Amino acid sequence: MGRNQRDPDRVVRGPGPKSRRQKDLAMPKNYDITEEQEPNKKISSRAKVRAKKRDLKKQLLTSLVEAKAEKKEADKIEEEDEIKEEETLQLLSDDDSDDMPDDEFDLDDDDDHVEAEIRDRVIGEMRGEDHEDDSSDDEGEDGELPIERKTKQVLQKRSQLSKDCNDNSAQNLRSHAYLFDKRAVKENNIQTNIAETETFVLPSGQEIEKENTLLFKNHIHQRIKDVVAVLSDFGNKRDPERTRKDYVNVLRKDLCTYYSYNDFLLSKFMDMFPLTELIAFLEANEVNRPITIRTNTLKTKRRDLAQALISRGVNLDPLAKWTKVGLVVYESPVPIGATPEYLAGHYMIQGASSFVPVMALAPQPGERVLDMCAAPGGKTTYIAQLMKNSGFIFVNDINKARLKAVVGNMHRMGVSNSVISNYDARSFPTIMGNFSRVLLDAPCSGTGVISKDPSVKTSKDDSDITKCSHLQKELILAAIDSCNAQAQNGGYIVYCTCSVMVEENEEVVNYALKKRNVKLVQTGLEFGVEGFCKYRQYRFHPSLKQTRRFYPHSHNMDGFFVAKFKKFSNKIPSSDDVKEKQEVKE
Ligand SMILES: C[S@@+](CC[C@H](N)C(=O)[O-])C[C@H]1O[C@@H](n2cnc3c(N)ncnc32)[C@H](O)[C@@H]1O
């Protein structure tokens, strides 16, 4: 049975002691028992405690009422401030009541609770009732009654509130700080609201890296432009504290970063080109060269080929004035390496720069020609068509695997005047000679074909260039020695590389001029820039200006070098002769 459940069988005898004590007091109005009011009346200590309690409770109630009124006023001021602020900022219209820190103005709950408690106690006291909690009137260690402690707490809160309310500037500051806090929260809300309605896709590490790289690259690019501008007008634009070398060092590093070159290769290019040309060269290396094809005149004419391809939807044009066989392909709905015309050998896909050395060689029908480093045979097939498939072409390469491609190309293009061999060309003069013309398309560093093979940007160093140069010097002597100076209309050697390095080009040619009885002649090409006669520490024979350089930025073709020699004697100069030759030249 529950504690409050009455026993139905119990005989009720009358009101118990508790109900008697709860009887309403018949008290005169304004009745208050205090020592001051009745100083002579003797009262018990218990009655004194009760009187003290009543007094405190009364004070407390008054304080609470006042505190509430003050708080209401503070709320009102704050509300007004906030409305003004809201109107000015015109930010959000949502309710921010939850944004207010809990401990800022939260007296209400606490006060209501204490107030209710006190009210109960006062009524209880007035009824002569002891409250369960303080029936023993426990005093604290410092002699304080629990009710006194509570009263103190409420009074403290109240005094704090009054202080805040009275201190206008403090209040303003506080409400402003609070409003700013709220505005920050609201602004955050603007952003997070988007996140609430849309799914925010977190970028992957790769995407972030890409974005950072892009930002970083843009920054570097701007600095490159700025430094180039300073170096172009150094007297006016320089920082007097900095030397030209300082600027050049920064530029070199930035160019390496921006275009992804190693320091070695970029320094080489910096030595070779004036600044504006350097940037144009580097930019051109970032772009693919146009697709060009060469008509195989052994099988068709350029006009017929162009017609056939146009009818397949290929968009093309004649390549340039300097060639009667070249076409440039802008776009094609079919793979240009798989058309029926291609498979029938009507054309070769070949960079414009590859036309040039063969044009310089100018092989004639019926001649005996050597292509020393021929694989995969692009230039060989051009030689064959210029020779009208007559005479002989000895097609050599050290790489057996690459020779398979040569065989395939010869068959497809209908070349029937060739013999394929697989020798180290350095030994070729000991195998056979007496060639009217020799083409040496030498293995090289590939620094002219960076757009085709960007790995060159970082894979080459000084030793690679030196090694190439060394091999090229050996090969060029072998090429000259394979050629017959007495051949009718012949005795020509063309040396070419797809490198722009001076060490692989002018230096090799200059070496050959010293070592053999050859001289440089005009290439017969209408374009291209002259080779270097003077370059940094190098001083080359003045005839080097007859060699030709081709650049991606100036000729829209791969970087290339071409030199044409005429052999005037089959005698190989002795070392004494070479010394003598050198002295005469110097
Ligand atoms: C630039 S590629 C020739 C490209 C060819 N002329 C063409 O137009 O298709 C250089 C060639 O030289 C060959 N080579 C390298 N060292 C050689 C050597 N010592 N003797 C003969 N060929 C060599 C390579 O195998 C390579 O095929």
TrEMBL record:
Bias (Acidic residues) ranges: 76-85, 93-114, 131-145
Keyword Nucleus carried by entry: yes
Compositional bias per record (Basic and acidic residues), positions renumbered to this chain: 1-12, 115-130
Ranges annotated as biased composition (Basic residues): 43-56
Keywords: Methyltransferase, Nucleus, Ribosome biogenesis, RNA-binding, S-adenosyl-L-methionine, Transferase
Domain SAM-dependent MTase RsmB/NOP-type: 281-568
Region listing for Disordered, in residue ranges: 1-168
Coiled coil segments of this chain: none
Protein name per UniProt: SAM-dependent MTase RsmB/NOP-type domain-containing protein
Lineage: Eukaryota, Metazoa, Chordata, Tunicata, Ascidiacea
